[in-house]
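Weekly puzzle thread! Below is a chain. First person to post its structure in token form gets bragging rights.
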Amino acid sequence: MIERYCTDEMEHLWSLENRFRTWLEVELAACRAWAEEGAIPEGALRNILEKADIDMERIRVIEDTVHHDMIAFVSSVAEKVGPDGRYIHLGLTSSDVIDTSSSLLLVRSIRLLLDELEMLSGEILSMAARYRLTPCIGRTHGVHAEPISFGFKLLNWYEELCRDRDRLVAAMEVTGVGKISGAVGTYAHCPPMIEERVCDLLGLTRARVSTQILQRDRHAQVVCAVAILGSGLERIAQEIRHLQRTEVLEVLEPFSSGQKGSSAMPHKKNPVVCERICGMARLLRSYSLASLENIPLWHERDISHSSVERVIWPDVFNLCHYMLKKTREVVEGMTVLDEVMKRNLDLSKGLVFSQRVLLGLVEKGFSREDAYAIVQGAAMQCWDQDRSFLEVLEDDPRVAGAFKGEELHSLFDTEYYLRFIDGIFERFPVKDPSFTKEQATRKERYE
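Winning reply:
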């Protein structure tokens, strides 16, 4: 079966029927507010609350004639209620219902993302602690730089996801507003107290001012926050893709029993899930542009944004929720080849320790320019002659004369680069009683 790029929870939330049911939530909240003001009799309100319901087929039949989904929806619900149906949609315009219900859907969607994000973040933090002292090579420009730990790499992922969470929470606050202010936002046929009460009933904040619609900068902030989260997930997936390359082979995404990587090459294990996540991130970023272009509308409102939102909102949240779940599956099931990481540290024959040798020569009295020239020259010999960096340095009388005993050898120590790792981890909510003792031991060794 071809995998669906959506999740059951999010697909239900953005289904057409649920969107109509969310419209009904708003309409019923408005009826309650009007009843509290005495505009709807108590008996009529009871009847509305008891009988109002969604009939998808009837909505479709009416819409085929009127070509207006809100009118079809209101007419269908009113038919079920009977004569008291005349109170439904009292003093409202379509966007009062659509935008307020959209705020409910957006907030609920963000909460689903936050729940999944929390589980992914927790798994990454736990794995970061597990591998916090597992040495591996750090790369800049794709080239070996200096030693780091694999847990340190994961900790960076975790911290970025924390910022993603903060952006989603901020976006949820910005979009968690309602408006029941009428055709141009002046409350001409529905007083502000109705808006205030409806928003209170729905758990939303009332917009301080609106036109016929809620302004689309709010929704653009939501989509952009989701797109940034998607780019962060792509960063994780892209890193795993790189680490799974045959020439690197430090991490592999899960590969299940019976899974096949290629129709032609039986040996293949391809990072297809991570590649899928990277592709979906491109879609999310394209939707952020569409949401930004929805901000400048004509005067108090036009309808050009509506067709865009009907496509991008369900897609944005379905894609991102799916990406979060898949990223968690990858992280939970990935294979970490720490022995290969150690082997890759030695690929450059010690060149990754060049900065420490440079600083060591400076400490011995060399100018930085002279020390740099010596170390770079030795590094070039290491590359060109396929010799170890330490061996080349030992053959240089300037270097050999500067260091005594094992001083030069001591500069080629991977643990030196990890001596502050535990201190970095202490900034995060990782519970491990070994941190303090181990950290003190490592720091003392190099002081």
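Puzzle host: Confirmed. Bonus trivia for everyone else. The two ends are 60 Å apart (CA to CA).
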